[in-house]
Design goal:
The structure holds 2 protein chains of 2 kinds.
Chain A: H1 2-6, H2 12-37, H3 43-49, H4 52-64, H5 72-96, H6 101-125, H7 136-139, H8 147-176, H9 178-183, H10 188-206, H11 211-227, H12 233-256, H13 263-281, H14 287-311, H15 319-327, H16 339-360, H17 365-368, H18 383-390
Helix pairs in contact in A: 2-8, 2-10, 2-11, 2-12, 3-5, 3-6, 3-10, 3-11, 4-5, 4-6, 5-6, 5-10, 8-10, 10-11, 11-12, 11-13, 12-13, 14-15, 14-16
Chain B: H1 6-11, H2 14-19, E1 23-31, E2 34-43, E3 49-53, H3 60-67, E4 75-80, E5 83-84, H4 85-88, E6 92-95, H5 109-115, H6 118-121, H7 129-141, H8 157-170, E7 175-179, H9 187-202, E8 206-210, H10 217-220, E9 223-228, E10 230-236, H11 237-240, H12 243-250, H13 256-264
The chains are: A mainly alpha, B alpha/beta.
């Protein structure tokens, strides 16, 4: 069943939804990256919730004009207008009042959403049977998706990606260092607005599939996931698009395998699964890699301290240190140093003395900055430099080479 | 109190204004109702190194940011090489304070320097090998070539500052504005930065630095601009960096003895 779903064998509607969701995920992941890098991720929450009154009002206007209230393009136009008003409200509250952005987002989000719910309730009580589909915008509803709807999503997504391609350099520059960007004459405020506009477009396009409550997840989770895998902004955007597209496709396919599995929420859960995998297993920034790195570091520290203690004839009390030295064959089970251990200990102590001289000598300033108690001195200085330093070690404390 | 010295008057004649890399007239910047910079005139001398000096909160950085249009000014005019700011942007390189940066941002050292080329690359032109070569060359000038592939958060504060200078160098500008480049950096970085700035001057470029360390002013700079909300003095170091002007700028914040010592250094 799942293979059928993933290979698009589950019928026309399921195929439309899977392709639409993949394109939406791709556009959302790429666009969300810039929001995430600009540290404005929460603004997307305000934008998405502010779409709801627009949906309701557009429906009422369409019905008043005698049309079918459920025309998707017009409902999306309505949602875009009210989301834009919501976005401008957040911007106005932040810049013209003493409210911080998080408070402004909270205020706009809840007021617009509340107003939207009131409108939906009113529409329901109007008793026009055709209003039934509107609450699908909350969590998405893909059951009755049409070819035209899928094309709308595909077209919208493609347009968003095109604009992102054109604006990616200014957006990255503003996100990284807005003062420098402003000094170079970039219109920072307008670039921010363009970025928000792109997010708004993705949100509106995604209303049909994932709904306004969960679209935020598709904008934020893929970039956060991608960040685990790379240190380059451009690649974060590409990977976020990949993860977003994958989530959309897999989520839609999964939800098609059984009746009554909601598409939007499953897509978000798939995105979360990819996030979870990355959180633990990504090299470099993943949790597991960090734990391993710390373990390795700890072992190096213990080893070094153990060798220095051996060289100076001090007792070693730490169990981990003793275990490490024993495993490396540097001390015997009774705690006495082996020949190998004595040699390594002498070398460690000699290096420490060399470092002492290096750190006191201004001419070795650059090298001295690299001292961390662990770094072998021969990776920092040339053999000649080390010889020169050895000549300065006082003979009384000098250790035979 | 404003000490206007003969040399300063000479520097503000209209003919001179035409050629000045950066001329600010009647600049007032205010956060709320209290002016941070009040009615300041500044004329940067071409081909020289100028220090903007003044106590904490005197409006040094604000003056620079307002001159560049980063923060809005209440009033004031700015010309850059005799042109309006908007037309001369390409000739200005700005090095902001490090404090405003998120160091966990996913970008490598080389990527930061390449941002200095974005204006010339435009929106879509591809980065080519010769762009990268130029960026590496700029990193070389600040002694950071070996760090090109590192994520910027892995550098020390001084190294980060040098990377920012490299980004400014990549622009190939004629006027360099640096905001506290020596704040909290190591001695090696300070040496590296000052030698780059001096080489810029030798190439005929103009350099303006917001500076806080009075002890190094006479060593590093040709001209000073003393500010404490309004302009206190401007001119060659020998004329404008005196016990009198320092007293006027810093008031009671510096002991008289200290001032004399610095001015004589």
């Amino acid at each position: 069943m799942l293979t059928d779903a993933l290979t698009l064998q589950l019928g026309y509607n399921a195929t439309l939804v899977a392709i639409g969701a993949a394109l939406l995920g791709l556009a959302a992941g790429v666009t969300g990256t810039f929001l995430f890098l600009r540290k404005r991720a929460l603004v997307s929450d305000a934008i998405s919730h502010a779409t709801l009154p627009g949906v309701g009002l557009a429906f009422l206007v369409l019905v008043a004009l005698g049309g079918d209230g459920r025309s998707l393009p017009w409902l999306l136009v309505g949602s875009a207008i009210s989301a834009w008003i919501g976005l401008l409200s957040v911007g106005w509250l932040t810049r013209r009042t003493r409210l911080a952005e998080d408070a402004a987002i909270g205020a706009v989000l809840s007021v617009f959403f509340g107003f939207g719910i009131v409108l939906l309730t009113v529409i329901q009580t109007l008793g026009r049977g055709k209003a039934a589909g509107l609450d699908g915008f909350l969590l998405g509803s893909t059951a009755g998706m049409l070819r035209a709807d899928a094309l709308l999503i595909a077209g919208g997504g493609a347009l968003v990606l095109l604009v992102v391609l054109v604006l990616h350099r200014p957006m990255i520059q503003v996100a990284f260092d807005s003062e420098y960007a402003a000094a170079r004459g970039l219109p920072v405020h307008r670039i921010d607005l363009a970025m928000m506009g792109l997010v708004l477009a993705v949100t509106v396009v995604g209303l049909k599939i994932v709904g306004l409550i969960l679209i935020v997840a598709l904008l934020i989770i893929p970039p956060v996931t991608a960040r685990f895998w790379t240190e380059r902004a451009g690649r974060v955007a590409l990977l976020a698009g990949l993860f977003g597209g994958l989530s959309g496709y897999m989520g839609a396919a999964l939800s098609a395998t059984a009746p009554n599995l909601p598409t939007g929420p499953i897509i978000v859960l798939v995105a979360f699964a990819i996030f979870l995998g990355s959180l633990f297993f990504a090299p470099g920034r993943g949790v597991l890699a960090a734990v391993l790195r710390h373990r390795r570091f700890q072992m190096r520290v213990h080893m070094r301290q153990g060798l220095l203690a051996l060289a100076q004839g001090q007792p070693i009390y730490e169990a981990l240190t003793l275990r490490l030295l024993r495993r490396a064959g540097l001390v015997r089970p009774d705690g006495v140093a082996t020949d190998d251990g004595r040699a390594r200990a002498a070398k460690a102590l000699r290096d420490e003395k060399r470092w002492e001289i290096v750190r006191r000598d201004l001419t070795h300033e650059a090298a001295a900055q690299l001292y961390d108690g662990l770094r072998p001195i021969e990776t920092v200085l040339t053999a000649d430099q080390i010889d020169e330093i050895d000549a300065r070690i006082p003979p009384a404390t000098g250790v035979p080479a | 109190m404003t000490l206007t010295l003969a040399a300063v008057d000479g520097a503000t004649t209209p003919e001179h204004l035409d050629h000045s890399p950066l001329a600010v007239r009647g600049m007032t910047v205010s956060y709320g109702q209290k002016p941070a910079v009040f009615s300041v005139d500044m004329t940067v001398v071409p081909g020289a190194m100028t220090a903007i000096i003044g106590p904490n909160g005197a409006g040094k950085s604000t003056l620079l940011k307002a001159a560049l249009g980063i923060v809005p000014a209440v009033s004031g005019q700015v010309t850059v090489f005799g042109q309006p700011l908007a037309q001369a942007r390409a000739r200005i390189a700005y090095v902001p304070q490090r404090a405003s940066i998120d160091w966990d941002f996913p970008t490598r050292v080389i990527d930061v320097v390449l941002m200095g080329l974005y204006r010339e690359l435009g929106l879509l032109r591809r980065l080519r090998g010769h762009h990268r070569a130029r960026a590496l060359e700029c990193l070389d000038r600040v002694g950071m070539r070996g760090f090109a592939e590192r994520q910027i958060g892995q550098l020390s504060g001084g190294q980060q500052q040098r990377v920012f200078l490299a980004r400014a160098l990549a622009q190939g500008a004629d006027l360099y504005l640096l905001d506290e480049p020596f704040a909290g950096v190591d001695a090696a970085t300070e040496k590296a930065i000052i030698s780059v700035l001096k080489s810029l001057k030798a190439d005929g470029k103009s350099v303006v630095v917001v500076h806080h360390d009075l002890a190094t002013v006479t060593d590093y700079f040709d001209h000073v601009f003393l500010i404490n909300t309004s302009r206190v003095a401007q001119g060659p170091v020998a004329d404008a960096f005196t016990p009198d002007t320092l007293q006027a700028a810093y008031g009671g914040r510096l002991a008289t003895q200290q001032i004399e010592q610095i001015a004589r250094a």
